[in-house]
Amino acid sequence: MENYLLALDQGTTSSRCIIFDRQGRICSKVQREFSQIFPQDGWVEHDATEIWASQMGVAVEALLQLGADASQIAAIGITNQRETVVVWEKESGKPICNAIVWQCRRTAEACDRMKAEGLEPEIRARTGLLLDPYFSASKLRWILDQIPGAQARAEKGELLFGTVDSWLIYRLTGGRVHATDPSNAARTMLFNIHTLSWDEELLRLFNIPRCMLPKVLPSGGVFGYTDPHLFGKSIPIAGVAGDQQAALFGQCCFDVGDAKNTYGTGGFLLMNTGAVAVTPKQGLLSTVGWQIGKEVNYVLEGSVFVCGAVIQWLRDGLGLIKNAAESERLANKVPDNGGVYLVPAFVGLGAPYWDAYARGGIQGLTRATTKAHIVRAALESMAYQTTDVLTAMQEEATVSLTKLRVDGGAAANQFLLQFQSDILGLPLLRPACVETTAWGAAALAGLSVGMYANKEELKAEWRADREFTPQMEVSRREQLLKEWHRAVERSCGWAK
Ligand code: ADP
Predict the structure, then answer these.
(1) pTM
(2) Using CA atoms, how far apart are residues 9 and 264, in angstroms rounded to an integer?
């Protein structure tokens, strides 16, 4: 009996495997952290072999924990850290160097030079992205330039490129399938989101040999079958999506205007824009949500660099709290923020500001300010930043949101979610299954192999845990937002 769906959730700091039943309940879950490699200031690498080994390890352990064997798994879904670049030998399957992680800033100058040449508008029109080192293309260019012989070998067809999903598919299928899906391809800066194909002009611009690129297959569909030696029986790999898009799918945001926000280390707000790729005017990205058959769903995305990470800073940097959960208790100790605003622009500001020179600040301190006010201001900053992104998004998408679905580690914080609802003036829905990323990949896979007849059946399985509704007076909300924007203004351009 093929009762289960197995999700491989390959994140930036850990590899996880979650096995779900048909109702989307978690039956088994195993997680393993792997090495973060920092060769120089601002550089971040992973060992792709360690990624593969840890991912395979947790999959086997999750099966053992459940006491299930491969014949009970209907399909595998893969979701992954996006943009990270792996290059490996076609013949041996060995990576030629460490993977360059999305966070790595080593190609900042190369991107600045391209910007100075005026290339950004054209790239943005084709890819929906901003010309930033964050995306894969400049990292792949770096590898082909810096690893001796790499460009020539790639041109001869000896090397393959992939984001982490492609790398896992390649290894899982014993090297038989080299493929990716449009939600991952869209983050490489080499993929045209309108024609849904690798873009000749961009390949020329970055001088990337086409023969090293994976085939792009629909996110919901069979990519291939696992090598029978791995799990004792072949399992179809039937769903693939980048982590944020998978979370949007897992939250059942299937209709135009549906949106979710993930409060993790960073914050990621995604809104479904349906069959149209909106061309954003402000610092938002237009990207592919998923493709099922011929049907493509586009999304608008805005990211906040420091979201839950501000709470880690309170704990590790300032020692104000012992653990993240304590932030909620402290924030509830004071009736309001006492006029204190904390702008966590530690690494600049993301959407909608995109100010690389912004730095953090705390405004409005008085002799009456206590630790509780600062902790509260930190939590409030997560909500203010999300509000700024959402406001920009509503202007672009010309749809008004009626509800926001939320997830991520910090969505455990009730104070944060109530304040977010207040400051947005919108109801928030928190799902019963908070593992929306892994569930999104599993659900895509389940849909592909016919475990669910259609997306409506998936919707029927989605359960809310709690709804948060706005309680704050409009005038109060407006005043708080005005003060927040004054604080942001003071942080902008600080490091210039
Ligand atoms: P990621 O997947 O990005 O690593 P998670 O979704 O696991 O992140 O969320 C972890 C983040 O959430 C951390 O930055 C942590 O500080 C924050 N966090 C976890 N629990 C709470 C809480 N109760 N209140 C506020 N922030 C929290």
Answers:
(1) 0.92
(2) 15
